[in-house]
Design goal:
mainly alpha, 70% helix, single chain
């Protein structure tokens, strides 16, 4: 997203999400009690899901408003150049480290990562396990834009409402079916897209219906009241919900819904104390490099600990340079190339006229 169209506070929200993930894995590397007591990393991933749904839908809406249509060709070119080059760099580094006996990632597992199916088949390589969440998002990118441009606005909203209502019951059914073998945060079944689709859907709904939401009397009051500070408290409390049957059905729903509201309120109140902090250049900068941080942090904190570069706090020394190199040398140039390629006319492959024109 260019600077001209950058949404205030959103990079700060990304920063919070990635810092939760990094903190969780740092604590795991140290075998600290806080890592055993609470999975901060999963909460950070949940925030990323809501942000992704919101951003992608906002971009699709802006393109439709500007061109009266949405080009799936342009969308997928931009996404490929955003996601694939930094991922390729990371996986190439894993291949080199594995050849030197410094990583547990096999060649087969590295190649399999490009299928974006690690949320269903995580494999034995722990250094690549974090790519499960990227797989969820890539599956979302594959399906959602096509639905957005081929369905009416009303139909899209109805579909999203079905998702946010049905997915908690899918999670509930999964817990009941697996019984004691289901462990919150550790069970592969909890990584499946159908178990997490409502997180992305809440973000999509926020992007589509936020003007309607902001026009309600209650939300206008909430957006100017200190009561809004209760929302992150609810998110934190919901994250501690137990047993699994309650967390999977109710806890995650509260986390996703309240996170969506928190994101919108930080955008609305970007001039508040919290908003100014989220938009503070150093903090927002963490959000800008969050994708590269996400890719590399697993290597230094949550993989095998028998290599010196994975010992705390040595990993902290290596993480930032690797993430900055990935962002500045690979990610940003690739994004610019993708934008140029995507902007080379809309005529060769006609854009799909958006059907979402009715209220």
């Amino acid at each position: 997203m260019s600077n001209e169209t950058r949404i205030p506070s959103l990079d700060g929200c990304r920063a919070i999400a990635i810092l939760l993930v990094v903190y969780s894995h740092v604590e795991s590397a140290r075998n600290a009690w806080s890592a055993r007591a609470f999975d901060w990393g999963t909460l950070g991933v949940f925030v990323f899901f809501v942000i992704s749904g919101f951003i992608i839908t906002t971009l699709l809406q802006r393109e439709r408003e500007k061109h009266q249509s949405v080009s799936l060709r342009q969308f997928y070119i931009r996404r490929c150049f955003k996601i694939l080059p930094p991922l390729t760099l990371f996986l190439a580094a894993m291949a080199v480290l594995s050849s030197l006996g410094l990583s547990d990632a096999s060649g087969r597992s590295i190649l399999f990562s490009f299928t974006f199916l690690r949320n269903y088949l995580p494999g034995p390589s722990r250094v690549l396990h974090h790519l499960w969440s990227l797989s969820v998002e890539e599956q979302f990118y594959l399906i959602w834009p096509f639905l957005f441009v081929t369905m009416s606005r009303r139909a899209v909203c109805r579909l999203l409402m079905v998702v946010v209502l049905v997915v908690p019951f899918i999670r509930l059914f999964t817990v009941l079916r697996m019984g004691t073998s289901f462990t919150v945060g550790l069970s592969w079944a909890g990584w499946h897209t159908q178990q997490l689709a409502d997180g992305l859907a809440w973000g999509c709904l926020l992007a589509i219906r936020r003007d309607d939401l902001r026009s309600t009397r209650f939300y206008r009051w909430l957006s100017t009241s200190y009561a809004a500070l209760l929302l992150p408290v609810i998110v934190a409390l919901a994250s501690y919900t137990y047993p699994p049957i309650v967390f999977e059905s109710l806890g995650k729903t509260l986390i996703f819904a309240c996170t969506a509201l928190c994101i919108d309120l930080t955008i609305l109140r970007s001039e508040s104390v919290v908003g100014r902090f989220l938009n503070w250049t150093p903090f927002a900068g963490i959000g800008k490099i969050s994708y590269s941080l996400y890719l590399w942090q697993q290597l230094f904190f949550f993989a095998r600990s028998d290599h010196p570069y994975q010992w705390f706090p040595v990993g902290l020394v290596f993480l930032l340079p690797c993430a900055l190199f990935s962002y500045l040398v690979v990610e940003q140039p690739a994004v610019r190339i993708g934008r140029r390629l995507a902007s080379r006319g809309r005529n060769p492959l006609p854009a799909i006229a958006a059907a979402a024109t009715e209220p």
